[in-house]
């Protein structure tokens, strides 16, 4: 079938894009014109009040004054408003400036030059007018914030504006923003009231905070990086701090008095943005979708602060299922939705709000009547404001423990619960089998279990009961249970106290039959003696390896004096002896006056690594006496590695220091870069890119020459100094570089010891370190 030809589709998107561009430009023009009219109207009002003019006469008078001053009407209007109210940022309540004999008028400002306000003040007044106009035109909080940023802050070098609204629980909600990307803004959508944070200190103290050089690395604030300048200003409405404005710069900035006055002046329109953009997302609105994600029942209760009545504000789906007998429960009083639980929940909610701490009850209501509604189990009441609480609970439709149904799937594990208020006890089915009792027999409370135990184990039960009832803390113990049929079972008891309103109301826990485990332990102990001899032999072998390593690579060697150098070497063994490794170092003066400096690391641990290390270290010592350069020495050492028993691989740095010209010719085989400390600044020397030793045959190793100066300190090390399980090697190298820069002036021995103390990897590996200083 032939498809009909389609006409061109290109113009439609083009026309739509043109229309959007045109409408956006028109809206921007309307906002500029509205801001202009707003500023002229304010100045006209000042002239009407000062000269008893009509609005039309005031407008003409403003035009004539502008012509006299040779300035634009809008700029003069900004000066007139400043003359009447003070520049933006002036303290509220300050009287306007006066002349001799009375206040200055607008004409005085024009004739005496008083109206020549600073450009920062004038921009602030323009930005305030633009903000008011954008708000009247229905702009969003982000659009109004953008007007404030473009009109008053960008000329000051600012990058972004963050506007935070203060919620009922002192959370900070991002209500308006401009200048940052959406991903950056999403990270700061909510700021919880964590103790001691910078934002909440400004919120509580109500005074601006100026950070021209940014914040420290431990203090996180919105902005491009910690070193960028920031200003944090409290926003007030009717004398109350209702939020914060945070302005950030691309980098450090000078926040002098004119800038601070301009920013303080822009705080007033910024505060009105929070009012103009009505709170759309309040904390209950955030709570609702959060509670809807839970699989257990949860609801939000709101207290009427006058009557004290609790209303159900929101229920998630599991909670709605538990109160399906009530039509439309949301919005009703709690007494109508859960009448049997009403009194207990009112008490828990009041305690949560007064103490600002979560409250817990094992069961609500405590007394359960047959035929009545199912109680709420494991109830938690959380305060989320002066009048709201969240109630979380577990539902149960049968008298059995929900935990029992889970433990019933596990062999030899049984659940129990003792209600200390009603005196009732409940066992899961498995408990009867463990104690050898018939199902249906009255369960034995934990506090009366002693007659069922071996008499030597009753003291352990008493200790557990003391922890549960007196110290109100959980615990566990192992006892022997004597069954009625004469059998003996080894039993582990693990229990936790249940508290209601701070009062011990019950005990819950599990019994676990560990008899099979006990018998297994007896069987294992019988074989322990046979294993001891083998373990002793292995320990002796490991000790010999460790002694061999320590003999070859001592922790603090005595180095002889070397021409033009001060040298210190350290070896730190692994944290655990079984990880004895193949790290080594060497400092060897040669007949031609040069000095061989080496650090290396054999992969792996144990005797194979140590024997491989001995082979490579001694081979390099002999090769160095040939007088060849480090690149050639490393190529020969690679061949030695390939022919060493066990096929090891290794990394190494090999250098030859010539005191005649203070040069270090060196090559690296996949080893970490040396650190050079010069004039208090530390840097990593970029090593030649060479493959590690023992990987492939016939390798050519590149070398480089580093010119050293008197006083330079060079440090060679192995990876045990910087490796971490939590961070990458780049972060470890940066930690080492910073630690070297912090070393106080001292000899190589003192600096080597200080560096080993300051920098420690967490892989429990051994470490070699060589520090040499040019005399």
Task: Characterize the structure shown.
This protein is an alpha+beta fold. Strands 5-4-3-8-7-6 form a 6-stranded antiparallel sheet, with helices on both faces. The chain has a 5-stranded antiparallel sheet with strand order 10-9-13-12-11. It has a 5-stranded antiparallel sheet with strand order 15-14-18-17-16, sandwiched between helices. A hairpin with a 5-residue loop joins strand 16 and strand 17. Helix 1 (11-51) packs across helix 2 (55-69) and helix 5 (119-136) runs parallel beside helix 9 (257-276). It is built from 21 helices and 28 strands. The radius of gyration is 40 Å and the shape is flat.
Features:
775 residues, alpha+beta, single chain, six-stranded antiparallel beta sheet, 28 strands
- Our count of helices gives 21
Work out the number of β strands: 28
The biggest sheet amounts to: 6 strands, antiparallel
| Helix content percent band | 25-40%
Overall geometric form = flat
Estimated share of beta-strand residues: 15-25%
- Uncertain spans, ≥5 residues at pLDDT below 50? 1-13, 88-104, 109-118, 278-284, 397-402
Radius of gyration: 40 Å
SSE class: alpha+beta
Overall average residue pLDDT = 78
Strand order of the largest sheet: 5-4-3-8-7-6
The CA-CA distance between the termini, in Å, is 92 Å
Biased composition (Low complexity): 83-93
Region (Disordered): 81-122
Domain ANTAR: 20-81
Biased composition (Basic and acidic residues): 96-110
